[in-house]
Each structure stands twice: as C-alpha cells, then as structure tokens.
C-alpha cells in the first residue's frame, strides 16, 4: 500500500497517481487505487469512471471496485454527483477510508495506491497511521514555496515511521510543442535537492505539458493517450524507479493478527526489506525469534518480552521509570497474540492478561542490546 501525498493542493498529485497506476497495470501488475481525497475526488474524471453511479456489491456485502484502464478504482466521486460536496468531519473521513480499504473486494493486488488529500494536517496524519503503508511518495512542483511545504510532508511521514519511497517533481520545465525547446517556467531541480538533503530517493521529474490536462479531462491518462510523449516517458521511468523501491521496502506482510494459541494468522515471511522492519517472526519454547534484514536473527525470551513492555501502565511516560515489578510477572508468562500496528510496531498480548503493549521495531531491537550488555 503506497500513499501519494503532497504538502499542498493542485501540484498534480492525482494526475501522477492515475498515470503511475495505469503505467504499472500496463506492465502487468495488479493495481488498485483508492481516491482518498474525499473532499475533492478527481480520480474518476481522470480515469473516465462515471460519477454518481454506486458500485455493485458481492453476495458477502463487499463493494466491487470499478475497473478502468486495467486499474481497480474506488472513490467518493463514484458515490456522489460531480457538484455535490462530501460534508464530513475528520474522523468520518478516516472511517470512510477504512471502509474503502477493508470493505472493498480488491482480490489479489500487487500494489494499492492511496491518493491522499493534499496537506499535512490531522487527516493526513491519521491516515498515514491508520494504514499499513509500505511507503509514501511526495509530489511537489519546483517553486520554493511548494518545495518547503513538501519538506514538511516528508517530515510528517518520517515522524509516523512511514518510509519515503521518493519525491516527484511535477510541472518541471515546459517543452515547446513546435520547436522542442525546454523553458523552465519555475525553478528547476529543487525536488532533487530536497531529496538529496533529506537522504530520500528522487524518483524523477515530469514536464509541464498541456496534453496532460487534456488527457486528464478526457478520462484517458497520458500514458495511454500518448505513450511516446516526453511526459509519458517520464511517468514510465518513475514507475520503474518506484518498482525498485517497492521491492526494497519489503518486510513482513502486513496487516496480520497472529493467534499464538491456535497458530492462525501467522504473518507470511518476506525475503527482503528495509533495515528496520522484520522479515519473519517465529515463536517456540526459546521465545520470539525475529529475522531482520542482513541475516540478523534475534531471539527474545517470552518473559523478557513481557518485562520490556513500555505501555503507560508498565513504564512512567515522563520519567521512563519502570512501573512493572518483575515479581508480579509469572515465570511462565507467554505471548498469546501478536499483531501488526501500522508499519512501525507489533502489538503483543500475554497470558497474564496484559494486552496494551506496543513494541516499536527500534524498541524490539533494543531489547536484545540490553541482553547483550547484561551478558
Ligand atoms: N505535468 C503537468 N503539466 C500540465 N498540467 C498538469 C501536470 N500535472 C497536473 N496537471 C494539471 O494540473 C491540475 C491539477 O492536477 P491534480 O488534480 O492532479 O492536482 P492535485 O495535486 O491532485 O490537486 P488536489 O489538491 O485537488 O488534490 C489538473 O488540471 C491537471 O491536469
């Protein structure tokens, strides 16, 4: 699941999402697209999906997404008429979007794009935390003001531990249709500079091209309407760069809810991933074994895991002091359930009835370093 975000509106985020989704579908990937911009859904228009026609339901009461240009799509724009605004407060937005992800019959997908509403406010923050995102892409235009706001977007994603898959600079230079000369109407190269300064990948630049507007308005994305144009080529090379990044992000398959008493729901292992996300989990009498990238294997004894809980009732939030008395923890305590929390932590419930512990990946790694020091 990949979020496409932008610090501010109108930078071309939805256009980029629609074209990347269609491009990846053309390359044979199974692609879904959630238009998470509930207040201003523009994806249906860009992909030629009629608005105001509620999608069909399966017999199990799941929504069947509309298919357009090889991409499965769901959008608020399909439920409301063009000129009817969705009037709702923030918490309702999150609820609707959770429905769009979990109550839709997506089938097997390789990638699900989430076209986020513009901005870095509460709604974006909640969404970034509510979904198990593999990563986020930030779209910006080359003007300084837009780039500064994009930087804010990057920082927000960093804070909620969503890996940044990269920055895209849109409307970067205008290619004259008659002589081919490139004019940089705005500054140029700012996206790459920000990417370099923040240590995140620069995925590419898309030129300012009137054909993008025409194709978006006609419901036929440019990568289909004019696949040989410089802008379509730019989308194609960004899609390639993104595929590489998607593979690199990898990690344990999320979301999952693993019942250790029955063995059900154990997360499927991954073969590769980024440095701070587990690749596989196992549990036996020796404890919880986590396989991290770079062949690093960590086994944490069940009771040590329980004693390391950092929830508010086990550790004082301000002083960091341990509130949990070891003598109150049974010697034979074991984890009973382990589930994914966003893409940054595990939730763990134990046989002593304690179930509010959230173990972030860095905190799990620290458990081992404490053990190593003790030894
Ligand atoms: N590279 C480009 N060249 C020319 N026009 C573009 C380009 N990218 C996007 N546009 C046009 O800019 C307008 C805004 O694009 P879009 O709706 O994708 O932006 P957005 O960031 O998703 O906006 P919103 O804030 O409404 O979500 C559209 O008319 C679109 O066709």
UniProtKB/TrEMBL annotation:
SUPFAM superfamilies the record matches: P-loop containing nucleoside triphosphate hydrolases
UniProt keyword annotations, A-Z: ATP-binding, Hydrolase, Iron, Iron-sulfur, Metal-binding, Nucleotide-binding
Entry annotated with the keyword Transcription: no
Keyword presence, Cell cycle: no
Gene3D superfamilies referenced in this protein's UniProt entry, alphabetically: 3.30.2020.30, P-loop containing nucleotide triphosphate hydrolases
GO biological process, alphabetically ordered: iron-sulfur cluster assembly
Alphabetized Pfam families for the sequence: GBBH-like_N, ParA
An MF annotation (GO) of this entry: ATP-dependent FeS chaperone activity
UniProt: ATP binding residues: 7-14
Domain Gamma-butyrobetaine hydroxylase-like N-terminal residue range list: 282-365
Function: Binds and transfers iron-sulfur (Fe-S) clusters to target apoproteins. Can hydrolyze ATP.
Family the UniProt entry places it in: Belongs to the Mrp/NBP35 ATP-binding proteins family.
SUBUNIT field: Homodimer.
Protein known as: Iron-sulfur cluster carrier protein
Organism: Pontibaca salina
């Amino acid at each position: 699941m990949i979020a496409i975000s932008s610090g501010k509106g109108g930078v071309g985020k939805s256009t980029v999402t629609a074209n990347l989704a269609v491009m990846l579908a053309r390359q044979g990937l199974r692609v879904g697209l959630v238009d998470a911009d509930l207040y201003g859904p523009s994806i249906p228009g860009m992909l030629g999906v009629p608005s105001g026609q509620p999608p069909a339901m399966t017999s199990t009461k799941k929504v069947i997404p509309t298919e357009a240009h090889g991409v499965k799509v769901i959008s608020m724009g399909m439920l409301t008429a063009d000129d009817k605004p969705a009037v709702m407060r923030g918490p309702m937005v999150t609820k609707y979007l959770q429905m769009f992800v979990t109550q839709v019959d997506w089938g097997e997908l390789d990638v699900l794009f989430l076209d986020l509403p513009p901005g870095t406010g509460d709604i974006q923050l909640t969404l970034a935390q509510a979904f198990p995102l593999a990563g986020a892409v930030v779209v910006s235009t080359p003007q300084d003001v837009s780039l500064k706001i994009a930087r804010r977007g990057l920082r927000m994603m960093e804070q909620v531990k969503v890996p940044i898959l990269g920055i895209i600079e849109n409307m970067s230079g205008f290619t004259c249709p008659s002589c081919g000369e490139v004019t940089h109407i705005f500054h140029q190269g700012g996206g790459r500079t920000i990417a370099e300064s923040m240590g995140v990948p620069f995925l590419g630049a898309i030129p300012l091209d009137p054909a993008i507007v025409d194709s978006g308005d006609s419901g036929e994305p440019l990568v289909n309407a004019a696949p040989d144009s410089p802008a379509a080529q730019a989308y194609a090379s960004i899609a390639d760069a993104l595929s590489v990044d998607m593979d690199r992000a990898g990690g344990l398959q999320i979301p999952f809810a693993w019942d250790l008493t029955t063995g059900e729901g154990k997360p499927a292992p991954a073969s590769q991933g980024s440095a701070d996300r587990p690749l596989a989990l196992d549990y036996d009498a020796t404890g919880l074994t986590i396989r991290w990238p770079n062949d690093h294997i960590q086994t944490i004894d069940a009771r040590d895991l329980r004693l390391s809980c950092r929830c508010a009732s086990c550790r004082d939030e301000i002083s960091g002091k341990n509130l949990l008395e070891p003598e109150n923890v049974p010697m034979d305590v074991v984890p009973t359930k382990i589930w994914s929390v966003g893409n940054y932590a595990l939730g763990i419930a134990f046989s002593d009835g304690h179930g509010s512990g959230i173990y972030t990946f860095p905190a799990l790694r620290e458990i081992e370093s404490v053990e190593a020091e003790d030894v």
